[in-house]
């Protein structure tokens, strides 16, 4: 047996890959890993990926319910998984029986929801902007609610009126009674701390091509669109903070965005429309140096990194065209969730999985702050044996010290 894992001075990536794949094959397809030690080290590393005393690179590739179909050999049915709780929980239990054996953890929720402890649904930003959420092609999508500049102008007029009475618009009629009942049970009202990012939201509301042309043709209306999104978001957050008993001085810090479509904009376009929304939210909800300022955009984000750097992100998940080194250059204090290509994982390309980890860890080793995860979403096809392979690579080749 090669002694590569016991030789931290070995920088031969090819030798490391060969050793790990050979050991995995010799163990029936299960990569060698001390599961108890791994999860103990993971708890320390995950708590602070920048920590000077963390034992290893933290693992961010924690498989989700998206992966049950291929693992269990059943057809994909995302609608049923989303809506049929008994069926979903049965699949989760079967999946967890496998995950417990392969990776040492039961990864998916097996506990049914308790309707008696759930708040009634409140409206969201898309409701404020009159967009209907529809199920299409295995996911929820917002339907366009304005066509042309006149319709958008009229829509913004209506939104601004709603902002003035946001509590009445946002909360259902039975809210006060349910809030009193649930508060007595110790169940706190929900807060608003995450949102589909401004560009993705705008391209849903107005259409992607039409929105980009609007930025070129009518920048004044685009500025108003951006400002109205920001003011509506702040109004929603203020209402839900107040319902939870928080003031502007006591409200919990942190806010995250998911904005895949921002990659469609040039830096000047983004500076005009997207940047003011993020800055306006984070000035209120994430003003401190360590407050959560998170952006997920699993797309080609290199051209926007300098702008996002000015926003002092503390967490980021970008597409696989970027390297850890590129991201770190502009986001020195962000925990980087990446940069494993999602399809490298979902196609279970073992050699590439290990090589991509070695590449990313080598770029993060000096400054730390890498949470090794997919550069984007985790997709069906990603197998528990691949997650275990990553765990083994971390345990053997991703340790600090």
Strand content: 5-15%
What's the β-strand tally? 8
Shape by Cα distribution: globular
Amino-to-carboxy terminus distance:
24 Å
Profile the largest sheet: 6 strands, parallel
Summing up helix and strand content along with how strands pair, one would put the structural category as alpha/beta
Instruction: Tell me roughly what share of residues is in helical segments.
Output: 40-55%
Features:
18 helices, 401 residues, two-stranded antiparallel ribbon, alpha/beta
Topology:
Elements: H1 13-26, H2 35-47, H3 68-72, H4 78-83, H5 85-103, H6 125-128, E1 133-136, E2 139-142, H7 149-164, H8 166-170, H9 175-184, E3 194-196, H10 198-206, H11 208-217, H12 219-243, E4 255-258, H13 267-285, E5 293-297, H14 305-310, E6 315-318, H15 324-330, E7 335-340, H16 342-346, H17 350-364, E8 370-374, H18 384-397
Parallel strand pairs: 3-4, 4-5, 5-6, 6-7, 7-8
Antiparallel strand pairs: 1-2
Helix pairs in contact: 1-17, 5-18, 7-12, 10-11, 12-13, 17-18
